[in-house]
Amino acid sequence: QVQLAESGGDSVQAGGFVRLSCVYSGISHRYCIGWFRQAPGKDREGVTAIWTSGGGAYYADSVKGRFTISQNQAKQTVYLDMNNLKSEDAGEYYCAAVYTSNLPYGGTCPRGRNEYGYWGQGTQVTVSG
Fold first, then answer.
1. Are 59 and 70 in contact (CB under 8 A)?
2. Residue 103: exposed, middle, or buried by beta-carbon count in 10 A (0-12, 13-18, 19+)?
């Protein structure tokens, strides 16, 4: 029932900009949508997340001030705007969903990958010097 699909991955120069999109279905306002990334040989790490109802966002320290999560609820789409990209930002980016049954609306979304039970297929971001 729950489905997510990422798109927008690209190959860019350092300092460049990429917007990723995550189109979802079967998800209500009680879900957080998170963005994760995984570089070769490294663990999948949480980047940011947001409630489908709005609010509750967190950002990993490594991307704070450069990345922005937003959404268009009518389009059932969550975006990740990545500014001033660095080589360390390269990797496979995934969106994921978790049902936040025990959180008040606006409560901070979970950070850990093991909290999210629904995943997209991934989209590749490459950053060159």
1. no
2. middle
